[in-house]
Design goal:
about 270 residues; about 5% helix; mainly beta
Length: about 270
């Protein structure tokens, strides 16, 4: 019988944490425990929001085409995101910079076209300048759901309600799908909560929402090519799905660069 040992850990580690900071805290505890036992680690990196990341917000600036207040535009109806914090803020452990529309009436988000949207919006917005390297991108977005989707025999996986296209400096691209109910949820919810691929980064009761809240989600995408510079980012609808399920609004993007932290366990040294 070989040498070995058993470690009992009563931390409840979930597949998806509603608050990404909790995942990092649990990871820190487990890593410290293993290091104290003499564990040897490989050199791979784990990118987690909220700790040991250097953040660099990517300005949306002139790409913004929609206001957050119903007086100017936003979605149809009286509810809006007028309570949303503008300027620099930290949400779900990530630093964002949102265009400040309070000092002057400027569009503060990027919205795509669809029914019930004020103004003439495009089906895609291309060329959000990045010009940086990143281990991960954090998308701060929300979604007005117009149609419900349920799994069926023909379609078990949720549809891509919109997607990002990451353009690298060498000309290659990667498509980042945002799935219904996974990477984004409806912007108005009775009980805001995290999703399998996104955290509920911000929520606030609506003044005329009858017990409902406005919600903005944070979706992390881990870059498969961190050593290649990202030139620009697009947001668009999936060609097959279009806007049949609703309309997205992108509020901010932040790039995260990680140090070598908490790599995979190679083995445990025994005395």
């Amino acid at each position: 019988m070989g040498e070995g040992g058993v470690i009992l850990n009563n931390l409840k580690v979930q597949e998806t944490e509603s608050n990404p900071v909790n995942a990092q805290k649990k990871q820190n505890i487990a890593a410290t425990l293993l290091r104290n036992l003499g564990a040897a680690f490989a050199g791979e990196r784990v990118v987690t929001a909220g700790a040991n990341l250097k953040y660099r917000p990517i300005p949306l600036a002139e790409k913004c085409n929609q206001f957050l207040t119903h007086e100017k535009a936003w979605y149809d109806g009286e509810a809006d995101l007028s309570a949303f914090p503008v300027g620099e803020s930290t949400l779900s452990g990530v630093r964002y910079v949102l265009r400040d529309f309070r000092t002057s009436p400027l569009p503060a988000c990027v919205m795509l076209s669809g029914p019930g949207v004020r103004g003439k919006m495009p089906e895609a917005v291309e060329g959000i300048r990045a010009d940086l390297k990143a281990d991960a991108l954090f998308f701060l977005h929300t979604f007005r759901q117009d149609k419900e989707w349920k799994p069926s025999k023909e379609a078990k996986e949720p549809p891509t309600v919109f997607e990002y296209v990451v353009h690298y400096a060498d000309g290659k691209t990667v498509v980042v799908p945002v799935k219904y109910g996974r990477g984004v949820g409806n912007w108005i919810e009775t009980k805001p909560q995290g999703l399998p691929d996104a955290a509920a980064a911000w929520a606030a009761p609506l003044t005329k929402g009858a017990g409902k809240s406005a919600v903005v989600y944070q979706m992390q995408w881990t870059n498969p090519r961190p050593d290649e510079a990202i030139k620009s980012i697009d947001i668009r609808y999936d060609a097959k799905v279009g806007n049949q399920y609703g309309v997205p609004a992108l509020l901010a993007i932040t790039a995260g660069t990680a140090a070598k932290l908490y790599p995979l366990l190679k083995g445990v040294k025994h005395g």
